[in-house]
Specification:
This protein is mainly β. Among the domains are: 53 residues, no CATH class; 90 residues, Nucleic acid-binding proteins (OB fold (Dihydrolipoamide Acetyltransferase, E2P)), CATH 2.40.50.140. The chain has two helices and 15 strands. The strands form three sheets. It has a five-stranded mixed beta barrel with strand order 11-12-13-15-14. A four-stranded antiparallel sheet has the order 2-1-9-3, with no helix packed on it. A two-stranded antiparallel sheet has the order 5-6. The longest helix is centred in the N-terminal third of the chain and has 14 residues.
Length: 253
């Protein structure tokens, strides 16, 4: 009985992840054990990193687990007609082609569409990602770039603003409201130029939505009849009777 207990204890000790000494400085996490690759995150000074089980790393590096969910982006070209992400698709941390790569899509990965960007789809990836930290040299976080100014917000209950001329009118703003399909509302009469609109809390239209810059309308279904945040440029319709938001991004609340 004593021998069995000792063997079990030894197995547990071998299976347990190895914890390193607390980090002396903020340390970058890389998708690969290569300091030349972009950082996908950072660990604060004083953190005790825990090695990922069953993952080896080169000398001077430690593999660590980054539990999900992760906010990430996938190119619209990497979606099938059924809105599934193609296996092997690159998942990036920002909606641009040169953004750091978080991981690649694998069979069985669980994702949820949470937002839209021009040419990109924002997703929530429920998956543990393996990252690497340099434990044999400096891998400090570089100085972060200044954050862009926060966009102006308009409450869902407010009417659409009057559009003024000048440089400010061409800047994107943020709006909140209920996204509805115009053809569901206007069953009688001529077809509208825009298939979607943003309604306020009183179910009155704030503005029509021009989603042509975002993506094909196949992906609009998850946002219908839901509270959303829309970022884009507000313009008048050609006849001057209504306003339309040229949507640059769309997120569900």
């Amino acid at each position: 009985m004593k021998t069995t207990l000792r063997l079990s204890t030894a197995v547990l000790l071998l299976a347990a992840p190895l914890a390193a000494a607390p980090l002396m400085e903020t340390t970058a996490i890389h998708a690969q054990p290569d300091a030349a690759t972009s950082a996908i995150g950072y660990l604060k000074a004083g953190t005790e990193p825990t090695a990922a089980a069953n993952t080896t790393a080169p000398q001077g590096w430690m593999a660590i687990e980054l539990p999900g969910p992760h906010e990430a982006y996938v190119s619209n070209n990497d979606f099938s007609k059924s809105l599934d992400i193609h296996p092997g698709a690159v998942i990036r941390l920002m909606p641009k082609a040169d953004a750091p790569i978080l991981t690649t899509m694998q069979e069985g990965d669980k994702t949820e569409i949470t937002g839209l960007r021009s040419g990109w789809t924002q997703i929530k990836l429920s998956k543990t990602v393996i990252g690497y930290i340099n434990v044999g040299g400096s891998s400090s976080a570089p100085r972060a770039a200044a954050a862009p100014p926060a966009p102006l917000a308009m409450a869902a209950g407010q009417p659409a603003p009057v559009i003024s001329s000048g440089p400010a009118s061409a800047l994107p703003h943020t709006f909140q409201g209920m996204l509805v399909e115009t053809k569901r509302i206007l069953l009688i009469g001529p077809r509208r130029d825009y298939d979607y609109q943003l309604n306020n809390t009183e179910d009155k239209r704030v503005a029509f939505l021009d989603v042509s810059k975002v993506l094909v309308t196949e992906k609009m279904e998850p946002y219908l009849d839901r509270l959303v945040t829309v970022s884009g440029v507000l313009k008048q319709t050609p006849d001057g009777k209504d306003v339309v938001i040229e949507v640059e991004s769309l997120e569900s609340k």
